[in-house]
Amino acid sequence: MLEQERPLMRANVLDYEPAAALFVPDNDPLLFYRRIAELGTTLIRPGGNIYFEINEQYAAETVRLLTALGYQQATAHADLFGKMRIARATWPV
Question: Distance between CA 90 and CA 74 in Å, rounded?
C-alpha cells in the first residue's frame, strides 16, 4: 500500500506487521516489484516464472514494468473477489 493509504489499514495488521513490509513511498509504488523483477533477470532460469501479489491500482503498471525488463507473457489476474491482485511473467527461453 502507498504510505498515504496507512489510515485505511486495519489496526490488527498495523499492530503486528512492520511498516516497511506494508507500505511504499507514495512517489514510487513499484519500488519492491522493480527490485525483485530486476534480480529475477539473473536468478530465474529460462522459462521460469515470477509471480507477485500486487496493489490492484498498479496492475497495468506492473505488467509494463515486467515487459520493459524483458519478461514475456506478463499478465495481471483477478483474485477471488475480482480484483486485479496477481501479476505473473515468464523469463525468456
Answer: 7
How many other C-beta atoms are found inside a 10 Å radius of the C-beta of residue 16? Answer: 7
> What is d(CA 40, CA 14) in angstroms, rounded to the nearest whole number?
30
Rounded to whole angstroms, what are the CA distances from 48 to 16, 53, 72? 33, 17, 10
Q: What is the pLDDT of residues 38-89, one digit of tens each?
A: 999 999 999 999 999 999 999 999 999 999 999 999 999 999 999 999 999 9
Provide the residue type at 43 as one letter. L
For residue 47, what are the β-bridge partners? none
Tell me the three cell numbers of residue 4: 498515504
On the 0-12 / 13-18 / 19+ scale of CB atoms within 10 A, 89 is buried
